[in-house]
Design a protein that fits this description.
Globin-like
Length: 97
């Protein structure tokens, strides 16, 4: 298959609503997603830089989650939210003990 022919086909989760409790979980997942990403970058030798520079391994998002712009946070929130919606759509239940 030619890579130019690839068309992503994520499962449609538009019919799945997330409760306030699950949305709270989504925010925790988004925060952790950022922490995992940042830890991986740092482990690979990247550091904070005000502008992304692949050659110098600088990235402006190697900062605490709280300091990210809402736009950057929303990237992680969408990933977490779609993951939670898919889990529910597939028939799994999410419960807190």
């Amino acid at each position: 298959m030619n890579r130019n022919d690839y068309t992503p086909k994520p499962m449609d989760t538009a019919d799945v609503a997330l409760s306030p409790e699950i949305l709270e979980l989504g925010e925790l997942l988004a925060r952790n997603t950022h922490e995992v990403w940042a830890a991986g970058r740092i482990q690979d030798g990247w550091t904070y830089g005000p502008v992304r520079d692949d050659a110098k391994r600088h990235h402006p998002c190697i900062i605490p989650y709280e300091e990210l712009s809402e736009e950057e946070k929303d990237y992680d929130r969408r990933t977490a939210g779609e993951t939670l919606k898919l889990i529910l759509k597939l028939g799994f239940k999410i419960t807190r003990e």
